[in-house]
Amino acid sequence: MKTETFKKFLAMLPLLAALLPACCGDIKISTAEYSNTGGTRYAVNAQDLEEVLDKVRDDIGQNSYEAIKSASVAILLPDGSMVSTVSNPENDPYPVASDMKFSIGSTTKTFVAACIYSLADQGKLALTDTLQKLLYDTGVLDETHRENIDPNIRVLDLLTHTSGIDDFLGDLYYYTLGQELYDLEEGGTFEPWTPLKTLSFVSSPDFDFDFLDFLNNEFNYSNTNYILLGLIIEEVTGGKVYPLIKKTLLDPQDLASTFMVGVEPYWGLTSLPGTSALGFEKSIDLDTWQLIWVKSSTLLDVDAVGLYSSTWTSGNMVSTAAEMAAWAKYYYEFQKDHGNTDESALNSMLMTSSYFKDRKYGTGIVFLRHESSAELWGHTGTIVGFSTLVFYMPSKQVGIAILLNSHRAARWDVLNGVVNYINENM
């Protein structure tokens, strides 16, 4: 193995370990980018919002794996106006702009869930349909999958992460991505991953699925559930997922800067139209043993085809903050119309931040209760180089999108700062 490649591999080890669960003294940027579209009667404004973001970054500091690099944030107000801003460290050589696309990770699941419900509305599937009916009987899955993927699991169990299926994001998966990068640098060829290749990294289930009493099945977040939902979408429609999501969700909602990566026609990040933000990781400089910012493209290949084709319908989409803030409102109303915003029917999730008292999961939607008692509905996402929070706040009727270009950033601190700012100014 070449020295530089070996160094790259070693530097990636702490990054991969962090992915398994899902310069000091920076000051405000000197060239801010503000946008208040359509006018607003609210006190919320882009300049003050930027100051909130800058303060959170300064409070966290840069000598931490949770350090915040840049942020693109948008707030959709009740009157339809959009407040957008970015926050960059001073003299950052790679500043972000509001029109830049960020990878949104598991927020992709909101589009997949909406697509599943739309197909159910059309009678093309039922939430009670099983994997036996949809994937085994149709030949998409075969006998080799039965040991790890119970055929009695229903569409609903996949949506709510109560299937018990193992998450493909494990040690072997990340080792394989690293090996493919090494082979590519050594002159080898590379093929995008298929969903079935992704499923080959699924091991024994986390619990035995109880198909006689579904209430006995525990919540256990697994990205594999949404890979299977992607296969179901393609099986019942006879087409590819991305064109369907584009036709039924992206185009009608004017989400022209929201795309899937790792699929036709956008196999890699550099094939996307427009400008995309660069992702970063805090990593160890092997010469100085200090924490430094490293472009995620140096840990993966610049297009990251392997990462995005393998995560597919569990986390391969990109978008802008403004489009995600608008989507947050639409998605909340969509889920509410389908009867999915009853907090008592949700499953509890681990919450590591003292700013939020509750965190629960429903049918592709996350519920949060802030310490102010404000409720938020939406989803979060992380992927190499990026972290995302997309939520709707019903009490204020605002959509919130926080896109960060560092995946282990202290995202709950950022969301807390934005929620407090909204509460104080609306």
Molecular structure report:
It is a single chain. The protein has 426 residues and is an alpha+beta fold. The protein has a single domain (44-425), classed as DD-peptidase/beta-lactamase superfamily (Beta-lactamase), CATH 3.40.710.10. The protein is built from 13 helices and 14 strands. β12 and β13 form a beta hairpin. α3 (108-121) runs parallel beside α8 and α8 crosses α11.
Describe the sheet with the most strands.
Answer: 9 strands, antiparallel
**From the 3D coordinates, which CATH architecture would you assign?**
3-Layer(aba) Sandwich
Q: Proportion of β residues?
A: 15-25%
Q: Which parts are unreliable, with pLDDT below 50 for 5 consecutive residues or more?
A: 5-32
CATH class: Alpha Beta
Number of distinct beta strands: 14
The span between the termini is 57 Å
Annotated CATH homologous superfamily: DD-peptidase/beta-lactamase superfamily
Integer-rounded radius of gyration? 21 Å
Which percent range fits the helix content?
25-40%
Q: If helices are DSSP runs of H or I spanning 4 or more residues, what is the number of helices?
A: 13
What is the H/E order? HEHEEEHHHHHHHEEEHHEHEEEEEEH
Structural class, judged by helices and strands? alpha+beta
Kindly identify the CATH topology: Beta-lactamase
List the strand order in the largest sheet: 1-3-2-14-13-12-11-10-9
Give the averaged pLDDT, no decimals. Answer: 91
